[in-house]
């Protein structure tokens, strides 16, 4: 066989770029992530259920079998490692050495250990103030994800892409007057301001966020009432439509008008609110729902 004709390794071609790291995406939503689960830590959380069952001496056939084969009346926390233990039981002992009974108890509800709670305990990150607004179920799911990308500056804007790819222009494809960045698209672009004016024509005199810091502060609801949730929903819907329109301008060379985007947002909000009820009965909520119905 002629080795000169062996297939040569192909050069790796990058077809997709992602700004968010896998570690960031795997954080719980309350800690700034998307809520995906890291396989290694999730496996530990599931194994912790077995560790708790042994520590709590639960009445199950598996616990009785482990006790008769290995523990023989001894406590799991003081059981020594031996060479003849099975691979799986060695994994349990390794997890035991990296945690303690107090940490397990933090994840216990009733008599059962909750794997999700223990998983969150494994992640040592501070809570973020914006998670309540970003992941509010009043928002459409696709709006939530883009909203999360905006507040974490994770969208593939031209100022970021120009660092890796040769672009003919880094100007905003919508207004063509300034370099495209998160701050420009959502807070400074002339087109965005026109959309916001159109939305205010039916929403009222709403003061829009001026930066990501301002947006993050507004998503931290001091009062989780329908009015705050509604304003947050409109903001997310407008930002989603602005980003979608930007993509149409770039890829399809067809841009929507501020008026059409405003009407689309209004329809989305009306349909979403009507589908997510009933809401808490109060005079204020009844008034808001009647206003939304008559937009």
UniProtKB/TrEMBL annotation:
InterPro entries for this protein: RVT-Znf (IPR026960)
Superkingdom of this protein's organism: Eukaryota
Span of domain Reverse transcriptase zinc-binding: 117-195
Name used for this protein in its record: Reverse transcriptase zinc-binding domain-containing protein
Lineage: Eukaryota, Viridiplantae, Streptophyta, Embryophyta, Tracheophyta
């Amino acid at each position: 066989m002629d080795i000169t004709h062996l297939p040569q390794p192909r050069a790796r071609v990058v077809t997709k770029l992602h700004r968010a790291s896998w570690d960031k995406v795997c954080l719980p939503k309350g800690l700034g992530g998307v809520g995906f689960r890291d396989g290694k830590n999730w496996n530990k959380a599931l194994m912790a259920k077995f560790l708790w069952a042994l520590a709590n001496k639960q009445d199950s056939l598996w616990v009785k079998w482990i006790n008769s084969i290995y523990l023989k009346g001894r406590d799991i926390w003081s059981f020594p490692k031996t060479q003849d233990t099975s691979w799986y039981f060695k994994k349990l002992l390794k997890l035991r050495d990296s945690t303690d009974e107090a940490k397990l108890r933090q994840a216990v509800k009733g008599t059962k250990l909750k794997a999700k709670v223990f998983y969150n305990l494994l992640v040592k990150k501070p809570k973020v103030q914006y998670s309540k607004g970003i992941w509010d179920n009043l928002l459409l799911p696709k709006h939530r994800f883009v909203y999360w990308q905006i507040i974490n500056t994770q969208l593939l804007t031209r100022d970021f892409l120009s660092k890796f790819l040769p672009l003919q222009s880094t100007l905003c494809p919508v207004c063509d007057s300034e370099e495209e960045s998160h701050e420009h698209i959502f807070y400074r672009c002339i087109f965005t301001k026109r959309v916001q004016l159109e939305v205010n024509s039916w929403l009222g005199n709403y003061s829009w966020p001026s930066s990501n810091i301002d947006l993050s502060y507004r998503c931290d609801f001091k009062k989780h009432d329908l009015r705050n949730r509604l304003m947050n929903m409109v903001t997310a819907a407008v930002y989603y439509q602005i980003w979608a329109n930007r993509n149409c301008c770039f890829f399809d060379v067809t841009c929507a008008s501020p008026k059409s985007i405003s009407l689309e947002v209004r329809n989305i909000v009306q349909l979403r609110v009507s589908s997510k009820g009933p809401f808490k009965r109060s005079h204020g909520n009844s008034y808001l729902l009647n206003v939304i119905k008559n937009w």
